[in-house]
Prior knowledge:
Blueprint (H helix, E strand, L loop, with lengths): L8 E4 L4 H12 L3 E6 L7 H16 L4 E6 L5 H11 L3 E4 L7 H5 L1 H21 L4 E7 L23 H20 L3 E6 L2 E2 L8 H11 L2 E5 L5 E2 L2 E2 H14 L5 E6 L5 E2 H12 L4 E5 L14 H7 L7 H13 L3
Parallel strand pairs: 1-2, 1-4, 2-3, 4-5, 5-6, 6-11, 7-10, 8-13
Antiparallel strand pairs: 9-12
The site of nicotinamide-adenine-dinucleotide has 29 residues, from helix 1, strand 2, helix 5 and strand 5.
Amino acid sequence: MMSNKAEPVLVTGAAGFIGSHVCEALLARSRRIVGVDNFDPFYDVNIKARNAAAIEMAAAKSAGSFELVRADICDAEAMNALFERARPEGVIHLAAKAGVRPSIADPVGYSRANVLGTSVLLEAAKRARVSRFVMASSSSVYGNNPRTPFAEDHDVSFPVSPYAATKRSCELIAHAHWHLTKMPTACLRFFTVFGPRQRPDLAIANFLRLVSRGDEVPMYGDGASSRDYTFVEDVVRGVLASYDRIGEHGYRIWNLGGSSPVPLAEMIATIGRIVGREPRIKPLPMQPGDVERTWADLTRSAAELDYRPRTPFEEGVRRQWDWLKAQP
Ligand SMILES: NC(=O)c1ccc[n+]([C@@H]2O[C@H](COP(=O)([O-])OP(=O)(O)OC[C@H]3O[C@@H](n4cnc5c(N)ncnc54)[C@H](O)[C@@H]3O)[C@@H](O)[C@H]2O)c1
């Protein structure tokens, strides 16, 4: 799909983990970016400020530009006015309340930010006649799917956490919106993304800190549960490819995974090797809402996006550790 570099890309969740990497990749393509983020206090907002500062530095060295708008995506008036002013070519919608476990404590907040927020953006995009809409979904929509690896056409009617239910709801709302407007729309099912700037609540970030301090690592279940970890640079390539290609498809769901699941016990052992300290494991029961395994079938995204994850798990964890050590 043709791009017009004079028109900005509107990126929501720009100050977040994945959003900040997507913005840097767009700047490397000399794009103008309008970022939207409300600096939700779900985790330390200083981290988000540092992410935004990194994007601004990248913008200064690029032929692109970055404007950050602090706003709530649920504020329809603010979003409509912003789209009217910025006239974005397309949207990459990554803002959300993320995370499975905290959604159990705050299902209403998750519904508001994720479902209402996505609906507001789709309407603003329609009014401004944007050329395409790419949004983050999640591997969690597969729930405890017994069929592995998880393919986009598997039944996803059985989410097991409020977070997963909001992400599946967004996919359905986006489908109805596409049906009525024909605005090309991509829903990207990310599989546990890691790497520099990973959210501090996610297991690898948390365990790197705990093991390096010699603190106990909580291991939920017997260590056999597994995740298909995906290095953030691989995900970003997939996001940009879907932005480029969604015009050929109309409405499309794509898995963006790593395609080699790592059992929890092995993940903890890898962290121990990289940090250079024997992990002290505290066994705990499985957490409600957590799924046993995730594993992406990448047949569709490989064929249609040329998506191929390149970063082996251990190398990715090493890069995250190198980044973490350099943080204040
Ligand atoms: N990190 C993962 O492993 C993973 C896996 C699957 C899906 N996802 C999805 O990818 C997207 C990005 O995730 P992330 O890990 O970068 O999370 P993140 O929390 O680092 O980034 C999300 C950003 O959205 C912002 N935000 C939240 N609510 C907002 C609102 N109402 N208005 C404006 N901004 C708001 C937050 O301040 C944050 O900076 C999310 O949609 C998430 O659900 C992430």
